[in-house]
Write a structure and sequence with these properties.
heterodimer; A: 475 residues; eleven-stranded mixed sheet; 11 strands; 13% strand; B: 473 residues; alpha+beta; nine-stranded mixed sheet; three-stranded antiparallel sheet; 15 helices; 16 strands; 19% strand; binds zinc ion
Amino acid sequence: MAAWTDISGIKQRIEASSAEEITASYLETIGKSRINGFTTVWDKALEVARGIDKDGNSGPMAGVPIAIKENISTTGLSTTCSSKILQGYVPPYDAHVIEKLKAAGAVILGKTNMDEFAMGTSTESSCYGPTLNPWDTGRVPGGSSGGSAAVVAAGEAPLSLGSDTGGSVRCPAAFCGVVGLKPTYGAVSRYGLISYANSLEQIGPMATTVADIAILMDVIGGYDHRDSTSIKKENTYVDSLKDDVKGLKIGVPEEYFGEGIDEGVKKAVWDAIGKYEDMGASWKKVSMPHTKYALASYYIIAMSEASSNLARFDGTRYGLRVEGETWHIMASKTRAQGFGEEVKRRILLGTYALSAGYHDKYYLKALKVRTLVKQDFDRALTDVDVLMAPTMPTPAFKIGEKIDDPLSLYLADVNTVPVNLAGVPSISVPCGFADGLPVGLQIIGKPFDENTILQAAYSFEQNTDHHTKRPGEVA
Amino acid sequence: MVYDNPDGVRIGLEVHVQLNKLNTKLFCGCSTDYHDDEPNTHVCPVCLGLPGSLPVINEKAVEFAMKIGLALNCEIVGQTQFHRKNYYYPDLPKGFQTTQYDYPIASRGKVIIEGEDGERVIGVTRAHMEEDPGRLQHIGSIEKSKGTFINYNRSGMTLIEIVSDPDMRSPKEARRYLDKLRSILDYLDVFNGDLEGAMRVDANVSVFGGNRVEVKNISSFKGAERALLYEIMRQKNHVRRGGKIVLETRHFDEARGVTISMRTKEEEHDYRYFPEPDLVPMRVADKVPDILKTLPELPDAKRERFNSQYGIADMHARALTIQIKVANFYEEVAAKVDPKDAAVWVADILKGELNYRDTDVDAFKVDDIVEIISLVKQDKITEQSGVQIIRTILDEGGKPQDIVVSKGLLKVEDDIVAKAVEEAIAESPEAVADYLAGKEKSLNFIVGKVMQKTKGRADAREAREKVLARINK
Ligand SMILES: [Zn+2]
C-alpha cells in the first residue's frame, strides 16, 4: 500500500525519487484494491508523471496524484456517472476543475465510483457494483462520492474530487474517516460536472488533512466565465489555516441531534465540541426550526431538476442506444434499459412534481421552504461564527441494509441537505469513532466564509489524532 | 369605408426571428455564420448539450432583444429570467429548450400597419428570447425515411419570438403586419432576413368567434398569406356545413398549399416550465435609457419626416421607407436632384424594375440614377429613354452615358425635328386637310411620320406640339 500521506509528504517523496515512482506506487495499490473504488484507471497517468519529472512543473500540485469522481468530465477518460446509459461516453472536453488541476501539475489517476447520477447515500446504485468501506468491507462507504472517499481512506489516492448535492461529499467523508468540503454554491465552477440538481450541487475536495483541502481549493476555486453562478475569490484558502480558535463562537443546532441519531455518533460530536471549548472556543445551542421540512423540500427540488437534466440521455448522440422502430421508441427503450431504479424513481417523481397540476403544490412550495431554511442559516449565523453537528446521524451502515427502502435512505441525509438548500459551505472532519467506525463532525459556515470553517477544522486536526487513524488500526 | 370583417376573422401571429447578426450564439461562443458551412462545424459542448456543459448568456443578444422590444413600443421587464421548457424531440440536444416564460423581456407593445381600411394598431402581446434547436434532415420523405441526420449548427442560435394579439382581420393585414415587422427589424440591423430560417411564422386563426386553430411551420410571408387564405376558407366551409371548429394544431403543407391536422389541443404537451438554475437573473431595466439612445429612426418616423422634409406624396414616402436600404438610397438621390423627382424615379420606376427582377436596391448606384434623372430634367433624353437605361443597367450593366451613346438615346436637335415636321406636313396634304376638317386622329399619322424620320429619337409629345403649331400657324 502506498503511504497514507498528504501533499507535503508526497512532495518530499517526489524530491527523493520522482513523480513517476509515486504514481506507479499508487497504481500498484489500486491494482490490489479490494474496495472497488476506481471505475477506470487512466492509462496516461504514468506518462503525465514522467512529463512532470522531465519538465519540472512548478505548479502547486506538481506530481501529486488525484482521483476524480465519475461525473466530472475528463477528456479522453470515461465519464459515465456510473450509469449504463453513459457507458462508453468519453467527453471531448475537460471540466473547469480538471483544466485547473492539470495546469497545477496534478496527475489524474482515474475515475471513482459513485451512486448512479449522484443519487444515493451508499454508492450501491452504481452500474459498476458497490464500493466497499475500507474500514469494514461489509459496509457502505457513503454516497454518492463513495468511491472518492473510499480510495482516499484506503490509501489508493491521496486526494480526490467529489460532488455534493445533498451531502454527497460530506457523507462518504464521514463514513470513511476523511476530510470533505462542500464549498459555498458558486465557489467552484460546475462547468463539466454532469448535472444532477444544478441549483444544489458543488464540486468538493476530499483529502486526509484539512491543509490539503485548502490547497486543493486554491487550485480549483474561483470565477469561471463558463459558469455564470461562479464567483471570484479575493483571498486564498491556505492563508486561513491558523491553529487558533480562541473566541470562536459555535452554534449547535438542536434539530441536528434529533430522532434516529446514534449514541456513539452523538458522543463523538459532543466530545469534539468539548475539545473546542478546551481550545478557547465557546458554544451555545441554536434553533433552526425549518430543518424538519428541509428533506422534503430538497428531494422535490433535486428530483425536479434531475428530471430535466437527465432528459438529454436519449441514445441519440452518445452512450447507450437500444435500437427501436422510431426515435421515440429508441429513446424510450434506451432510457428504460440505461437508467437504474433509483434514477427512474427520481425522474418520475420530479416529472410529477413539475407537471402542470402539481407545480404549485410541490415545486413552488419546496422553493418557499428552501427560502425559510436559508433564513434559518442567516439567523443562526448572525450570532455565531460556525455551526457544528454530526455529519451523519449514524456510522456507515451495512451493504444492502437500506437500498430497498428509499425513504429510510433519504432520512440519512437529514443533517446535510439543509446546507445545500442554503448554499452555505460545510466541511466534515473525522472526530472519533463509534463501534470502530469513523464519525464525522460537520462544521457549517457563512456563505463564502470557507476560511473560518477551514481554520476551525484545521485547529481541531492539529489538536487531535482522529484523522491519523487508518482502516485496520481501530479496534 | 369601413371594413366590417363579415366572417369575424381573427388572426394572431407568432413570429420566430433568428438574430443572425450576432457574432456568437445565445449561450456559447460558437460563431453564427454557419449557413454555407458543413453540418456540425459550428458546435461546442454547450450548444450540443453535452453532459456537464453550462449556458452563459450572450449580453449582446439581450441588447438586441431590448432594441426589438423598444422598437415595438413594448415595456421592458425589470430583470430577465430564463426557464426550461421540457419536451422530447430529436433536434433538441438537452431535452429542454431554454426560453423565457412568465417574465418575457418585452411585453405589451404595438405595431401600426396599413389595414384593409386605413391605419390599424396591432397589439404585441410579448417578445421573448429563446434558443433555436438543431435541424433534422431526413433521408427521403419524412414518412419513408431510412434515417435522419441532425445538424446542430443552428442549435443555440438566438431567437426572438414576437407574439401578436389576435388583431388582424384578413390574410392581407397579416401580410402587412409581417412586412412591417421585417421592416422594423431591418432598420434595427439585428438580422438578415434573406438567410434561410431567419423568420418563421405560426398563425392562430378563428372565424365567427369560434375556436382558435394554430397553423404551424410556415416558412415565408407569401406562405403565411396562402396558409391563412386556405385556413379561413376551410373553417368557413366547415361551419357552413354545420361543423364545429375544434381547438387544434395544423401543419401547413407548403407544396400543396393546404393545412393538415397535427393534434388536437387535448394532447398538448405539459412543458413543466421551471427557472433555469444555471443562468442567474440579469437586471436589464437599468439599460433601457442607453438602449433607447441607440435606436435608429424607425419606419413610421422616417415616413413622416420624408413627408414634411421633402414634400413628397404619402404613397411615395411609404414605399420609400419600407426598406431601410431604399430609404437611405432615396435620401442620397434627393440630396443631388429635386427630391420630388427623386421620389418618382426611385419609388415608382426603379423599385418597379427591381421588384420585377426580384432584386434589391443594392443592385443600383446612386450616381447612376442621379445622372439619369438629370438627363431627363435637362431634356437631353426622354423619360422613356431613362427607363430604358435603368433596364439596361440592371440586365446588362454599363454606365448611363455609355448607354445613351450606344443606343443613340440623345434627343435630336430641334432643327432636325423642325425639318422633319416640315417634310412630314409637306408629304401629307390629305392628312392635314382631314385634321383641319375635324378628324383628330389624322394628326397621329403626321406625328408618326416625324418619328419615322427622326428614327424615334424625337419626343412624341413634343413632335405632336410642333406639328400642331405648324399646321395652325
Ligand atoms: Zn456552441
